[in-house]
Amino acid sequence: MSETYDFLFKFLVIxxxxxxxxxxxxxxxxxxFKDDSNHTIGVEFGSKIINVVNKFVKLQIWDTAGQERxxxxxxxxxxxxxxxxxxYDITSRxxxxxxxxxxxxxxxxxxxxxxIILCGNKKDLDADREVTFLEASRxxxxxxxxxxxxxxxxxxxxEEAFVQCAxxxxxxxxxxxxxxxxxxxxxxxxxTLRQLRSPRRAQAQSAQECGC
Length: 212
Ligand code: GDP
Ligand code: MG
Hints:
Helices cover about 35% and strands about 20% of the residues. The chain is α/β, with parallel strands linked by helices. Strands 1, 2, 3, 4, 5, 6 and 7 form a seven-stranded mixed β-sheet that branches. Guanosine-5'-diphosphate binds near residues 19, 20, 36 and 153.
């Protein structure tokens, strides 16, 4: 596949241990469920190019790789993230109750502008549900988060979660986010750089002054 893209976004996956973060990342990248027998070393990182509103966006996604078990998710993990999936498990109220802490950390340690999508994972286990859709959507609204229920097992809404988050960041680039600002979590890709450079070159060659 071509490595040409317009933007590069750093993404995080955060939330309590056991909520399915690694499985969500695996499902998004590989399009399959990572079963428990597959105990390879914790993947810390994945990347994939997606097409959103006619732009190719490379998502560079960081997984906590087990750090959250020891409540030691480091500042460097958060630094410069443009987007995050904040994950809880719909069958575990404890993981839902922890969301406020995760949110505080993300906004403090990443950026005030970080775009976050709340993911109520394990949607397939509806019979064991401890958190209703309505309750979580209210929480999301109050905290200005997007919200989806996902299943890393069936794949339902997994791609959508990443795409919706990326789409919102792209919309923000037009208004409040500046990709060239340090720590924005956004970089221009080759395709955009070529576009940005070539008009300037063309302008210089024709020596036209338009004052814009
Ligand atoms: P992490 O600690 O947040 O990275 O969680 P993992 O991705 O390691 O998943 C924790 C456990 O939940 C594993 O046993 C997974 O098989 C299981 N799991 C993850 N996502 C789902 C899901 O969507 N549905 C179901 N039924 N189980 C899941
Ligand atoms: Mg994990």
